[in-house]
């Protein structure tokens, strides 16, 4: 069961990121990200918003936790994909592999928060992924820094998991005053030796 469109995957990855990087504060955050709610998928929008709000007050560790959570989420989405799908994707030439990996990014966004929708526009290995409805950027006041770390790290990790040599940076963020949330992608899609092997 998913309440308010929030996926169990997002909650679990945030919980693990906090456990890794703020272990002394984990008990505080478990007031909202409690183990029973994690197990049953009963964490709603209000508790998640509270967690994100308090994490932003923790300083720079917020960005580290969001990045760690994005990496965990990417790992878990790929692990959950059918082994045959993973083998086929890894065997494709890099220019053909990239759109399929970006498709996994779309799946990842849907599994974390139903209100998020990434739209990728990539040409010759360069382009943007616009994140519409990013839950991380729903803030009352303008943030001094972008808050899209989760998605940037998740896409970076997806590229790495499928041996795509690329860079992912936050280009724009609604939370910091931009009109949209967007990641800038640059992927070197030159053929690699053994691309046809699994």
Q: How would you characterize the overall build of this protein?
A:
With 198 residues, this protein is an alpha+beta fold. It has one domain (8-188): H-NOX domain (Alpha-Beta Complex). The chain has helices at 8-21, 26-29, 35-40, 45-56, 61-80, 83-91, 94-112, 149-161, and strands at 117-123, 126-132, 165-172, 182-188. It has a four-stranded antiparallel sheet with strand order 1-2-4-3, with helices on one face. The longest helix has 20 residues, at 61-80. The protein is globular.
Write the layout of secondary structure elements.
Blueprint: H1 8-21, H2 26-29, H3 35-40, H4 45-56, H5 61-80, H6 83-91, H7 94-112, E1 117-123, E2 126-132, H8 149-161, E3 165-172, E4 182-188
Antiparallel strand pairs: 1-2, 2-4, 3-4
Helix pairs in contact: 1-5, 5-7, 5-8, 7-8
CATH topological fold name: H-NOX domain
Please identify the top-level CATH class.
Answer: Alpha Beta
The N- to C-terminal Cα distance equals 35 Å
Silhouette: globular
Total number of helical segments? 8
Write down how many β-strands occur, each being a DSSP E stretch of 2 or more residues. 4
- Briefly note the structural class of the backbone: alpha+beta
Q: By CATH's scheme, which homologous superfamily applies?
A: H-NOX domain
């Amino acid at each position: 069961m998913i309440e308010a469109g929030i996926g169990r995957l997002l909650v679990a990855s945030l919980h693990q990121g906090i456990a890794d990087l703020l272990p002394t504060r984990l008990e505080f955050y478990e007031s909202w990200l409690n183990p029973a709610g994690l197990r049953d998928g009963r964490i709603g929008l209000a508790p998640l918003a509270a967690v994100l709000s308090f994490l932003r007050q923790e300083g720079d560790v917020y960005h580290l936790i969001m990045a760690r959570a994005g990496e965990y989420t990417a790992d878990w989405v790929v692990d959950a994909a059918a082994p045959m799908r993973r083998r086929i994707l890894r065997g494709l030439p890099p220019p053909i592999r990239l759109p399929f990996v970006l498709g996994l990014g779309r799946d990842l966004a849907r599994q974390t928060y139903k209100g998020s929708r990434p739209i990728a526009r990539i040409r010759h290995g360069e382009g943007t992924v616009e994140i519409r409805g990013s839950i991380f950027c729903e803030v009352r006041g303008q943030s001094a820094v972008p808050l899209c770390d989760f998605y940037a790290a998740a896409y970076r990790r997806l590229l790495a998991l499928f041996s795509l040599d690329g860079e992912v940076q936050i280009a724009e963020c609604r939370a910091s005053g931009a009109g949209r949330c967007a990641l800038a992608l640059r992927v070197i899609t030159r053929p690699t030796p053994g691309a046809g092997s699994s």
